[in-house]
Design goal:
It is a single chain. The protein contains seven helices and nine strands, in the order H-H-H-H-E-E-E-E-E-H-H-E-H-E-E-E. By secondary structure, the chain is α+β, with helices and mostly antiparallel strands. The chain has two domains: 177 residues, no CATH class; 139 residues, no CATH class. The strands form three sheets. A four-stranded antiparallel β-sheet has the order 6-7-8-9, covered by helices on one side. Strands 1-4-5 form a three-stranded antiparallel β-sheet. It has a two-stranded antiparallel sheet with strand order 2-3. A hairpin with a 2-residue loop joins strand 2 and strand 3.
Length: 372
């Protein structure tokens, strides 16, 4: 009917017959959003950068701590297990070299005389030679070659007493940016990382004095067994002093019970001296002893220690070197056999001057002699 307004039916509404509003953003809205993103971008970038830096710092701190723990475990091994079961060809208390002449601390799962077990006690086993990640950045461990062993001169009793020689090792440890597949530039020349090879520097006083790590390596640590050797020297000093004092006490106790000619014959002997082989103290090989030097770690020497109230292990130094005893020490170049029965008497203890070798006394000039 003409003039009647159009009313959409319910079906036409459901079928979308009505015209729809236009979708999208207006130009002004787009401009506003673009301005907001532009203002926030530097802030977001800074937050992301700080987050990455914090993560990198945490990673480096973690790896530095791991390097220190490994270093402490190696030093601890050298000062304990390495004293009794050192690597073949090494003296007691020395640092083990990298296996196979490489740079790894241990090869695979090999437990070199308990070394790997000592490290695994403080560090997960998959982080000994690498950082434990899927990429597996390699750790580098090196010990100065044996030809560069440092000798440190020290007095037996700190500031006084005879001089001894302490040999000790220096090593370096770091985490490189060289992966196990050797695809990084840091792997050039087969050396993981950038730090130089540790070697003898003839121009410096001590081979490691001028050594510096490269900043491209992570958490570098330098290891030294000198503190171990100094600690063992204090043990040896106390040991020698205790034996000397007990021998002096025994000698003086006997001297109070004899008179006349018996005093002259009262040597530093807790048994019949006729059982000992005699020697000419003026000969270089005798080193001023009128009897054969007695090794305190075997035979009659053990009997002496037992009579003095010591255990058998007191006859050896902490490194295993034999301590020897002379019951009649006489440096007089005009000595005659009759002097064996003449007072006053002196006695002496001796051991190898290079105590860290764990070797018995050697030729004259290579020994320390403590006279009392």
């Amino acid at each position: 009917m003409p003039g009647k307004p159009f009313v959409p039916s319910e079906s036409s509404v459901r079928k979308g017959a009505l015209p729809q509003a236009q979708a999208g953003f207006t130009l002004i809205e787009l401009l506003v959003v673009t301005m907001i993103i532009g203002l926030m971008a530097p802030l977001i970038s800074q937050v992301i950068s700080q987050g990455l830096s914090a993560k990198e710092r945490a990673y480096r701190e973690e790896q530095t701590q791991t390097n220190k723990q490994i270093a402490d475990a190696i030093i601890g091994w050298a000062g304990s297990a390495g004293m009794t079961t050192p690597f073949a060809g090494l003296a007691p208390g020395r640092l083990p070299p990298p296996p196979g002449g490489g740079w790894d601390i241990t090869a695979g799962t090999a437990n070199y005389l308990g070394l790997r077990s000592a490290i695994e006690a403080v560090v997960p086993n998959d982080q000994i030679n690498t950082d434990g990640t899927q990429v597996g950045y390699r750790r580098a461990y090196q010990v100065l070659p044996a030809v560069g062993v440092e000798a440190f001169s020290a007095r037996l009793w700190g500031s006084h007493g005879p001089e001894v020689a302490l040999e000790y090792d220096v090593a370096t440890l770091w985490l490189s940016t060289c992966d196990m597949a050797n695809t990084e530039p840091a792997c050039s020349g087969g050396r993981p990382g950038y730090s130089p090879v540790l070697s003898v520097n003839s121009a410096a006083e001590g081979y490691y004095r001028n050594y510096t790590f490269d900043l491209g390596d992570i958490g570098p640590v330098m290891l030294s067994t000198l503190p171990n050797q100094q600690r063992n020297l204090r043990v040896l000093a106390n040991q020698v002093e205790a034996i000397r004092n007990r021998l002096l006490e025994a000698f003086r106790a006997r001297a109070t019970r004899v008179t006349g000619d018996q005093i002259a014959a009262n040597h530093f002997l807790p048994w019949d001296k006729s059982a000992l082989p005699t020697a000419d103290p003026t000969l270089a090989a005798s080193q001023n002893c009128a009897y054969a030097w007695i090794a305190l770690d075997a035979g009659i020497g053990r009997i002496i220690l037992g009579q003095l109230g010591f255990s058998e292990d007191r006859g050896r130094s902490p490194w295993g070197g034999t301590i020897e005893y002379c019951p009649d020490y006489n440096p007089d170049p005009a000595w005659t056999p009759a002097d064996r029965n003449q007072a006053p008497h002196a006695a002496a203890l001796r051991f190898n001057r290079i105590v860290t070798d764990g070797a018995p006394p050697g030729a004259p000039g290579n020994n320390v002699v403590v006279v009392f």
